[in-house]
Amino acid sequence: MSLCCCSAGSRRLLLSRLLLGQGRQARRPLLHLRTTATAAASSSATSLSTQQQRQVSLYVEALLDWNQRMNLTAVTDESEVMTRHVVDSLAVLPPLERAYTSRGGDISGISLVDVGSGAGLPGLILAVARPSWKFTLLESMRKRCTFLEHAVEVMELSNVDVVCDRAEDRVLAKVMISESHLM
């Protein structure tokens, strides 16, 4: 899985994502999420407002709830979701922002595509942390798209679009459109 970042100047940056280990644990109720979210945010040099912390809380709650019915993540413990998913997602921000600003880019106009979004990581967490950025979550499995659409609605994110399609099909369609303009 990857995160493709494109600015208005058409710069692209691919970041590989780590696969998480397998294992099942019983779901625990959400406890002290605000404290955990604050720790997560500060550990990745990103500070989340109270509203953003609430959005992350809503996401984690939805993820753990839906994960009981469908396999979204192997991590089923709230504190592990915070450390293994939320903190890891937020950790992408500083190097991503440095990559754009070091080339003189304006980070306020960044558009990101989370290819193979799955459970919406890191896309949804990044969308919470950077509401001025535009995010597209590209996922091929309809049931995961349904979850992503639900999460976007529950989190009240206006900067996220969910696209249910295969990345290969999207790229092929763009190539075909580009070639038709050349003829």
Could you name the key traits of this structure?
183 residues, 14% strand, 48% helix, alpha/beta, Rossmann fold, disordered N terminus, 5 strands, five-stranded mixed beta sheet, single chain
Give a short summary of the structure.
With 183 residues, the chain is α/β, with parallel strands linked by helices. It contains seven helices and five strands. Strand 3, helix 5 and strand 4 form a beta-alpha-beta unit.
Verbal overview:
With 183 residues, this protein is α/β, with parallel strands linked by helices. The chain has a single domain (2-182), classed as Rossmann fold. Helices cover 48% and strands 14% of the residues. It has 7 helices and 5 strands; from the N terminus they run ββααααβαβαβα. The protein has helices at residues 33-43, 50-67, 78-90, 93-101, 123-129, 142-155, 167-182, and strands at residues 2-6, 12-16, 111-115, 134-139, 160-164. Strands 2-1-3-4-5 form a 5-stranded mixed sheet, with helices on one face. α1 (33-43) packs parallel to α3. The longest helix is centred in the N-terminal third of the chain and has 18 residues, at 50-67. Mean pLDDT is 76; it is low at 1-45.
Question: Would you spell out the secondary-structure blueprint of this structure?
Answer:
Layout (H helix, E strand, L loop, with lengths): L1 E5 L5 E5 L16 H11 L6 H18 L10 H13 L2 H9 L9 E5 L7 H7 L4 E6 L2 H14 L4 E5 L2 H16 L1
Parallel strand pairs: 3-4, 4-5
Antiparallel strand pairs: 1-2, 1-3
Helix pairs in contact: 1-2, 1-3, 2-3, 2-5, 2-6
